[in-house]
Amino acid sequence: MVSTLKIITLGDEALRQKAAPVKEIRPLYREIAEQMINLMVEGGGVGLAGPQVGFMERIFVAKHAGEPPRIFINPSIIATSEDRVKHEEGCLSLPGVWADVIRPKTLTVQAWNERGRPFTLEASGILGRIIQHECDHLNGILFIDHLSELKRKRIIMHYEKLRKRRR
Ligand code: NI
Q1: Which of 4, 50, 68, 127 is 20 to 30 A from 113 (CA-CA)?
Q2: Does 4 reside within a domain?
Q3: Per-residue pLDDT tens digits for 61-106
Q4: Assigned domain for 73 exists
């Protein structure tokens, strides 16, 4: 049994730590992935990574358009396009704030599925963005880290203001 997971937010050190590689698929992964998918859907998000629920292993879940949720274990981005695109991003660990982030338009990712089978996927558009955002989480990187210092400070100030209001 896994205890009930919850999403941690900016300020929690776990968000800044590097997640460890998954060595083998254990039964608990299914339960953790299920809880992560539920939290992602309830929160209205499109992706959620292990560190965001304090689970420090390299796993994330993603939900793209009408497709069923996907699980990525030990993901590794092996190629990115030189073409870059700007798109708005948000994060369940920074509820209420969004910002434009520039990222490669297309990427190739290798990962394992929930059964430990390796797969390779080329992605662009929203899915490509989700994959890049979630892989960042596994390395302790947040989307605001891609912004200029001024923009980052501004967005954190706004986030803190919202958080005080929510209390
Ligand atoms: Ni995020």
Answers
A1: 4
A2: no
A3: 999 988 999 999 999 999 999 999 999 999 999 999 999 999 999 9
A4: yes
The catalytic residue among 67, 134, 149, 160 is: 134
**Per residue in 102-149, pLDDT tens?**
999 999 999 999 999 999 999 999 999 999 999 999 999 999 999 999
- Asked if the structure places residue 2 within a domain, the reply is no
Distance from the CA of 136 to the center of ligand 1, in angstroms?
Answer: 8
Instruction: Give the total number of structural domains in the chain.
Output: 1
pTM of the shown model: 0.96
* Residue 134: active-site member: yes
Q: What tokens appear for 58 in the block?
A: 């390299």
The helix/strand/coil state of 166 is: helix
Q: Which CATH number does the domain housing residue 63 bear? A: 3.90.45.10
* Rounded Cα gap, residues 100 and 161, in angstroms: 20
Burial (CB count within 10 angstroms: exposed 0-12, middle 13-18, buried 19+), residue 135: buried
Q: Compute the distance from residue 48 Cα to the ligand 1 centre, in Å.
A: 6
